[in-house]
Amino acid sequence: DAEITQSPRHKITETGRQVTLACHQTWNHNNMFWYRQDLGHGLRLIHYSYGVQDTNKGEVSDGYSVSRSNTEDLPLTLESAASSQTSVYFCASSESVGQGWSTGELFFGEGSRLTVL
Amino acid sequence: GNSVTQMEGPVTLSEEAFLTINCTYTATGYPSLFWYVQYPGEGLQLLLKATKADDKGSNKGFEATYRKETTSFHLEKGSVQVSDSAVYFCALLLSGGYQKVTFGTGTKLQVIP
Q1: Looking at beta carbons, which residues of chain B come within 8 Å of A43?
Q2: What are the CA-CA distances from residue A53 to residues A13, A32, A48, A78 (Å)?
């Protein structure tokens, strides 16, 4: 069965360190997204991609970067981790019905819980 | 801008009670509307959707009707079960151009036996 997997599921790091969260999907979806989930804020979009070599900033992109070198993977990098980036991170993908167009049905990974001390 | 507003939680109900979770939206254009559910320790999954005014989405006993006149998409279930305990997110997707799903803040539902 197709799936979307995230790793690591749990990570503790120190302020200032670089951290990369991996996301791998086997749906063959063109659209991929990174969200963070925080109490009182729901899900906020960090970065998204509508295809290989395409990346875009979401509403809370400062301090994060992504790259898309193939269809399956969209790693999220925290260049210099800060305590404010302690959160649960979700990767999601969706089917494309044209460049940038989506059905709106997102398939989510199980999340990566990051703690920055 | 585009936004989704959900009722504050948590909502605590006894098993077999009637559930309503309110959702209203603000959007330019004509969005598609969604309810996602997040069970403990898991990612979100699509529960139901409606793509145009007066459409009713339904799944697993849950229903929601797209009301354009009141810009609402309230989630209902006639008889909740303990297994329905989860966080419920209302969301919208605009048509036209690059598309991103906008989520509400989520409403936690706890069903007690």
Answers
A1: 44, 89, 103, 106
A2: 29, 12, 11, 19
Q: How far is A14 from chain B (nearest CA, A)?
A: 24
Q: How confident is the model at residue A88 (pLDDT cuts 50, 70, 90)?
A: very high
CB contacts, 8 Å: A42 with chain B: 89, 103-106
Helix H or strand E segment including B5 = strand B3-6
The DSSP call for residue A80 is: S
Residue of B nearest to A47 (CA): B100
Distance to chain B for A92, nearest Cα, Å: 9
Cβ(B17)–Cβ(B80) below 8 Å: yes
- Residue A35: pLDDT band by 50, 70, 90 thresholds? very high
What is the model's pLDDT at position A99?
66
Q: Give me the pLDDT at residue B28, please.
A: 82
Residues A18 and A30 sit within 8 Å (Cβ to Cβ) = no
Residues in A closer than 8 angstroms to B43, CB to CB, are: 90, 92, 108-111
Query: Is residue B45 within 8 Å of B111, Cβ to Cβ?
Result: no
pLDDT value at residue A100: 61
Distance between CA atoms of residues B44 and A73, nearest Å: 19
Tell me the average pLDDT of chain B: 92
Q: What is the mean pLDDT of chain A?
A: 93
pLDDT at residue B95 tops 70 = no
